[in-house]
Amino acid sequence: MTQFDELARRYDDTAELPWRKHMEMPTVLGVLGDLAEAAVLELGCGSGVYARAVRGRGAARVVAVDESEGMIAHAKARERDEQLGIEYLCGPLPGAEKGNFDLVLAVYVLPYATTVQELTALCETTFAALRPQGRFVALPIHPQWSDETDYYLRYGFQLTSDQPREDGGPVTLTIRSGDSEVSVTARYWSAATLEEVLRTAGFGSVEWRQHSVSPAAMAEYGEEYWHNYLARPHAAILDCQK
């Protein structure tokens, strides 16, 4: 059992948090662009939040992979009800799928590599899954995340670490909902290391994208609400091309 097996339903709920619903997801989907007829692989799909969104934007094929049996069981249950045509797989991507995808998406996956070797292997797996000119979009922990204890509390989570900020250092993400909370352990990777590993894996370009908030969401919640996150995001958005 992984640290995510009991989190599936709660992970679905996070998609309704304002910062995810009105900032992260629209920004990521905007970076992905036109998905019509695209074959998309999501690594570390969790409960399927992004897989469903990508399918809804016209992707011809969506394969979603996660190592957590609990996450995949939850996602498959939703798929049985919704019949979206998403393929959910538990475990590593089958070797036969190499070179079959136009896009690979990995939301909060790179932070769970515990060593540079694991990080490199993950990026190499991603590279191999892509067709020529394919893209890899990933959300690691932002190298400039704020370590102030309550900095992200208004968004429903905390990010903390009691160790120096160095490659592979553990960072605790605590998600708070009402009176309950759940924590997972992620890893920090510097911008230099992320770029080096991605280029070592074979990617020709690595671009850092910025989060954005729609005028409607800015007006609804106010500039002050969004200020902390936009100033020091907890997640970066990397856009890489094969």
Automatic annotation (TrEMBL):
Keywords: Methyltransferase, Transferase. It comes from the Bacteria. Coiled coil: none annotated. Residues 40-134 form the Methyltransferase domain. One of its GO terms (molecular function) is methyltransferase activity. Pfam families: Methyltransf_25 (PF13649). This is Methyltransferase domain-containing protein. GO terms for biological process: methylation. SUPFAM superfamilies: S-adenosyl-L-methionine-dependent methyltransferases. The keyword Metal-binding does not apply.
